[in-house]
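From the pipeline queue, job 12 of 40. The input is one protein chain; the requested action is below.

Action: predict structure.
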Amino acid sequence: MRALFVAAFMLLFFATHAVAEDFDCVITPSMILKLGSPVSSTLQFVSVNRGDVVHKGQEVARLESAAEEAAVALDAARSESLADVNQKQVKFNLAQIELNRGLKLTADVTIAPQKVDQLRAEFLVAQQDLAMAELDHDLAVLQLNHSKALLDQRTIRSPIDGIVTERTLGPGEYVRPESSIITVAATDPLYVDAYPPIAYWRQLHVGETATVRPDAAIGGSYPAKVLTIDHVFDAASGTFGIRLELPNPSGAIPAGMRCRVNFDEPLAAAP
């Protein structure tokens, strides 16, 4: 009887006081992106391969773009030309001079009022012609920006720093908006996913620090911080998920491997 009492006491003690802070975990990329094209076209080239490191904004592929480049050149020529605006400006200045001269002569009663009305109408027409020429020039600039935007769609750039994990298409192949050209994985930071028992849910907090130890093949100990804690439990396994952020600026830690995570603050399972 005494032995049973001691055993029950020990079980209760370890359930409420034992330090249980070491959990299995998995290291994953913080982001995996499948890069494609917003338009359908033929691939001109793909400049990266599996395993290559890419940086944010780097060109990784380009679509055939001869027509778009020609449209940009044409619209650039139109937007840079001020010939029509200058011509309408000269006519406007001349109409203004003629109107002022007519008004002066009217004061001296040496010109008919009908002639002044004609000069005034010619001035207003010249004014409107100048305004239309300036508007056409502004529209040409906007058209150039539109053509540049269409041309820019033919260039595929990486939106993140990362590593190419897959290349799906190559030069000469046809790309559709739903197609994937390459896949890029972000490895700085990395995510660490662990699934402790529900008994530790109240013991963990966002921002808490921990130490991550990758499998022996990589080894070492690395600091991490709790990023998210699930508020929906897995009833079948009696666990909940936590995600930690693991800085990896040098790329020394590969993603896609198992690990152990140890929290800096001792954890005690709830009774």
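Job complete. The helical segments are 2-17, 66-80, 83-107, 113-152.
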